[in-house]
Specification:
287 residues, alpha/beta, Rossmann fold, 6-phosphogluconate dehydrogenase C-terminal fold, eight-stranded mixed sheet, 13 helices, 8 strands, 53% helix
Length: 287
């Protein structure tokens, strides 16, 4: 694929860096310009070959066709309106954050709202920074496009192409409110429970040597997300607090049910509950 599009990426970490790798490899982007206020990240992104060059934001805005904002979600609410203020009529901006409702509110009355497309590529790891960028991270994964009716049709088509042709992702569509509900139930609860389990083990098992010796693949896979960036996830938990509280209440009630069944010796009933949980495999194994 050959393209003449110049893409700017604000925030060259796991997601931004991986997008740069994918868009350059597929040829969707003629050039990827890095925009990052973190000087060590700037230098490392260039050393790793994630981007073609670095520019300050005001200079990058003079030449880019598409801007990808891959910064923590609290920053997005402040950044996006100011960036849109500086856009010409042909430029497009997207963000890749894990919460959508605050951004929807921040931009709903902006005169250039149609040049913004709200997206969430559903891929990642527990690592962060330029070193965490992975070639092929997004291939075969799903990307959510939110509130598509609020974006210019041509802008939306361009971003659909970015994800489908540039990153080889599958697209799904929903509104911002639904997105935040579903990600709380599926993604955000997984992270907060992983953090909680890791802290529980660290509190109860003071012998670090025993944790290292006895931890097997089950434990490692369950607490993997606890290695994620607290700075990133505290902002997501805060922004999606209402939905997260709802699913946390359900999770705590389930744990209390299990505890009650064990205390009463009702292991046949507990076995039934565990068997019900096995059904998640049927859902996740769909082709």
């Amino acid at each position: 694929m050959e393209s003449n599009k110049v893409v700017g990426i604000l925030g060259i970490g796991l997601i931004g860096g991986s997008m740069a790798l994918g868009l350059r490899k597929s040829g969707w982007a003629k050039e990827c310009i890095g925009i990052d206020t973190n000087r060590p990240n700037q230098k490392r992104a260039l050393e790793l070959g994630l981007i073609d060059r670095l520019l300050p934001l005001d200079e990058a805005l003079q030449i880019i066709d598409v801007l990808i904002i891959a910064t923590p979600v609290d920053n997005l609410v402040e950044q996006l309106p100011k960036i849109l203020d500086q856009f010409n009529q042909k430029q497009i901006v997207i963000e890749v954050g894990s919460t959508k409702s605050p951004i929807y509110e921040a931009l709903k009355n902006h005169p250039r709202r149609k040049q913004f497309v709200s997206t969430h590529p559903m891929a990642g790891t527990e690592f962060s920074g330029p070193e965490a960028a992975i070639d092929g991270l997004f291939e075969g994964k799903r990307c959510v496009i939110c509130d598509q009716e609020l974006s210019d049709p041509d802008a939306e088509k361009t971003i659909e192409s970015l994800y489908q042709d540039g990153l080889h992702m599958n697209l799904i569509y929903m509104d911002s409110i639904s997105h935040d509900v579903h990600t709380a139930y599926i993604s955000h609860i997984s992270h907060i429970c992983s953090f909680a389990l890791a802290n529980t083990v660290l509190e109860k098992e003071k012998d670090e040597k025993r944790i290292f010796e006895l931890a097997s693949t089950g434990f490692e896979s369950t607490v993997r997300l606890a290695k994620s960036s607290p700075e990133t996830w505290i902002q997501i938990f805060h922004q999606n607090q209402e939905n997260l509280m709802d699913v946390l209440d359900e999770y705590i009630n389930t744990l209390l049910k299990y505890k009650g069944l064990m205390l009463s010796g009702s292991y046949d009933k507990l076995k039934e509950e565990l068997a019900k949980a096995n059904d998640i495999g049927r859902i996740l194994n769909r082709k």
